Amino acid sequence: QVQLVESGGGLAQAGESLRLSCATSGRTFSSYVMGWFYQAPGNERDLVAQIRSGGNTDYADSVKGRFTISRDNSKNTVDLQMNSLKPEDTAVYYCNVRFLSRNYWGQGTQVTVSS
User: What is the largest CA-CA distance in the chain?
Assistant: First the structure.
């Protein structure tokens, strides 16, 4: 059974940093795209960042230069380093891994940034 478990969310002040981690189990995800999405109340779930199996990355324009995604294929983990946090980064952050028709989600972790 595939499981994705996020950790590292919490409360931060504007300008501070948080690091999110996603531990996966149930299969090997080295060929999968791994990423993070966020969803604020009343909004759709949107892509924050993703990293492909070869290491290429994509970021939402709003987080470029502040967030860094990384993966460790030996551990089946994907992390999101979030620096210079802003109140508008407040959301539930979801870990995601996908390959062709397979698409898996974590349960989400809350990130709240106060001004």
Answer: 40
Residues of the chain whose pLDDT is less than 70? none
Using CA atoms, how far apart are residues 47 and 15, in angstroms rounded to an integer? 21
Under 8 Å between Cβ of 78 and 35: yes
CA pair distance 71, 63, nearest whole angstrom: 18
pLDDT digits (tens, 9 = 90+) for 23-37: 999 888 888 999 999
b/e map 82-104, b = 16+ CB within 10 Å: beebeeebbbbbbbbbeeeeeeb
The rounded distance, in Å, linking the Cα atoms of 21 and 3 is 13
Q: Which residues contact 105 (CB under 8 A, 6 or more apart)?
A: 4, 94, 95, 96
Q: What is the pLDDT of residue 28?
A: 84
